[in-house]
Structures are given as structure tokens and as C-alpha cells.
Amino acid sequence: MTDAPHVGTLAAGLLGTIADVAGVTVGHCTLDEGPVQTGVTVVRPHDGDVYRRKVPAAASVINGFGKSIGLVQVDELGVLETPIALTNTFGVGTVANAQIRAAITANPEIGREWPTVNPLVFECNDGYLNDIQALAVQEAHYHRALQACDRAFERGSAGAGRGMSCFELKGGIGSGSRIAQVAGRSFMTGALVLANFGRLPMLTLAGVALGRSLAALEQQEQQKQQKPEHGSIIMIIATDAPLDARQLRRLSMRAAAGLARTGSVYGHGSGDISLAFTTAYVVPHLDDFIDVPALVSDARLDPLFQAAADSVEQAIIDALFSAVSVTGRDGHRRLSFKDMQANKP
């Protein structure tokens, strides 16, 4: 865990990451080669075949300036069929192809006797630090990230987060978790974010408007305030609470509360997307009937909503605290939050 401040009143899990939700693992493949500063991150909801053992899920599009793939079918059917992949904007198609090939290799009936598979890839534009036109992400990078999935994983400038910026500082991968009490039972909720959004003067850290104090000169701050927000954030929420797809969509929407607390206004050019899934049960591909546990009543969802919002806010802070400074394309540089603080006059 980083030394980031703890937000909210709920306790975190042992790891303080999305991997506190049993069965969830994360892996990275990082490309750090001069002007190429990018990568792939994969979130596995369980260690089995996700096509055969689908996971209930739902998504919310808070602001839709994004190029993700797979959201339409998730919205229609309410399940995941592949692990979740994160990468840069121009890597989406390549990573989707890798997901399709992996699913076909494991299940040769896909696209023949069985329906096709729905790849799920989210993206942010890392073009400030990364030479995105190089199209450096290859299918092999998805496979490396998938193979690297583990409960312990790097945050900050790793995987898909390598070239991302957050509040004009170095951003990237962040994670957090919270324990919610619902009718006498404990449920774990965790979040992972790909943070690539925000303007420095708007940065709010644990309720403190810290961004203004980090701006070197008042004149520079005022100029930055006039610049539109073009960044994006992908927010993945996992829980072990038994919820259906409709309830998961409601849970995913609470990511917006956590995002707003950090200073985002979901700008015109921002792609802000949240997806929530549960590990409480799976949907077998071939079964005629599905065993669903007793679901949490809608009237008892508030603790889970709080856990989701707090986990997302914590994950964004974690991304800032975990990142290291990166120099990339054309000498562009993003200072980490810690280096920016160290350089304050």
C-alpha cells in the first residue's frame, strides 16, 4: 500500500486494492522505450474461462468521449465474456483481436456452433507522453498482461497507465477497496482506475483543494483554468455482494461520486466510463437454468454505493501517489505528485 491518505469512514481490505475481492487479479505489460510509453492492463474476475463462466456486470457512461469496445453487449446481456482489458486509444482493436483469439483457442466452437465472443477493451489517450501513432501495442502484450495477473500488482506508471496523466501530473493505474456492512453481513468492494484526466488547479485531495497550491505561479494557474479538460478515466468496480445486472449498473454510477470528489467536472472531451461486476456467482455458458443466490435488496444498497464511491476516490489518489515521473514523446514530461511536492518553492 502507498502512503496516500485514507478517504471516507469505511475500512479498507487487507491489500487496499481491487484484489481484496476474492478471485480478482490484475496484470500488466509495460512498454517503456523512449517515445513509446504505454502498455496493457488486464483485470481477471476469476481464474477460469470467463466465456464459459460469465460474470454479471453492467456499465455507466458518465461522459462518452471514448473509443471502448464491447459495451453494447454488456448493456444488453449484463455479463462479461472475457477479462477486462485497458490500453491506449489506438490499441483497442489490437487488444480486442487478442481477446478473440484467446477465447477461440480455449473454445473452438466460438463463432461456429456457439455464438461469437464479446471482447471488452477500455482506453484512454496517452498521446502526450506516448507516441500513440507508433501503434506499439501488439497482441502479445495482452497475453503477457493476462499471464501476469496476480493479487499483488504494480500501480501508477505501469501497464496501460504508463503514459497517462492526471491533473497535469503523472497518472495511471490506481486501486482501492472498502468493506461495507449490509444487514449484518460484510461485503468487499474494490476499484481499479486508469486515471488520465483533470487540470491541476482543480485537484482536490481528501477534501483539500491542493491543486491551487501546487501551481507554481498564480498567472500560470489562471491560464490553466481556461484550458478545457480533454482527459479520461476508466473505473472498474468489483464486489462480492450478490447483485444482478440492474443493481450493478446502479453501483457503477456511484463511481461518478468518487470521481467528482477529486475535482473532475466530466469535461466535454472527457471519456469517463465505469463498469461494475460481481464475483458472487457466475452464469454458465451451457446451462439451461442459472443458480442465483439471494440478492441484496435495493433498499439495502446504500453501504455498497458508499463503498464504491470511496473506493474510486481512493483509487484515483492511489494512482497519483503511486506514479513515478515519466519522460516520453518529444521530451514531454509529467512529474509525479511526490516529485511535484518535492519541487515546491
UniProtKB/TrEMBL annotation:
Coiled coil: none annotated. SUPFAM superfamilies: DmpA/ArgJ-like. GO terms for molecular function: aminopeptidase activity. Keywords: Aminopeptidase, Hydrolase, Protease. Pfam families: Peptidase_S58 (PF03576). The keyword Lipoprotein does not apply. The keyword Protease applies. PANTHER family: BLR5678 PROTEIN, D-AMINOPEPTIDASE. This is Aminopeptidase. It comes from Caballeronia choica.
